[in-house]
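so ive been stuck on this for like two days lol. basically i have the seq below and the ligand is fe (ii) ion, smiles is in there too. i just want the complex predicted, nothing fancy, no docking runs or whatever. if the output looks off dont worry ill sanity check it later, just need somthing to start from for the group meeting slides
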Amino acid sequence: MKKTNRKIVEEIIRVDHAGERGAMKIYEGQLLALETIKNNENLKEIIIEMKLHEKVHYDFFEKEIQKRKINPTKLLPIWDLLGVGLGFSSVLLGKKAAMLCTASVEEVIDKHYKKQIDSLENDEAALKEKIIKFRDDELNHKDIAYEAGATKEGFYSIFDKIIKTGSKLAINISEKI
Ligand SMILES: [Fe+2]
Ligand SMILES: [Fe+2]
C-alpha cells in the first residue's frame, strides 16, 4: 500500500525531532566531558556554537510535533542516553574523534534531509523550506568539523563506520516508533 502524504509528513517530523534532539545530546555529552575531564577551550567554543543551531532545529520540530499532534518517538530516553554517551566518549578519545563524530553524523543527515526534501510535496512548502535551511546548517557543521581536525584515517575510519551505522539505525527506528 502506498503511504499517504500525511503519513510521510508524520514520519519526517518524528524522525527529525528525534535526530535534532540527538544532536543536542551529543554536544551536551561533549561539553560535559570538556567541563569535567578534558580541557580544550577552543573545542568547547566550536561545540557551544553548533549546539545553538541544533537547539533552533530541535525547537522547530518540537513545535511541529505539538501543532500537528504527532507522537514523538517512544525511544527518546534511549536516544538521549546514547547521544550523551557518544558525545562524552568521543571527547575522551580526543579532538579528532570529537570532530569526526560531528562530521560522520552530518554526512548521514545530509543524505537523510536530501531524501526528505525530494519527497515533500508542495503543500508542505514551509516545512520543506525549513529542512533545506537546516541541511545547509548541517553541511556547515560538517565543514567546521573537518577544519577542526576530523579525520577518517586509520582507527578513525572504524569510529566513522560505527557512528554512521548507529545513526542510520536510529533514523530507521525513529521514523516508525
Ligand atoms: Fe541540526
Ligand atoms: Fe548539525
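The pocket of fe (ii) ion (ligand 2) is lined by residues 23, 50, 54, 106, 138, 141 (CB under 6 Å). The mean pLDDT is 95.
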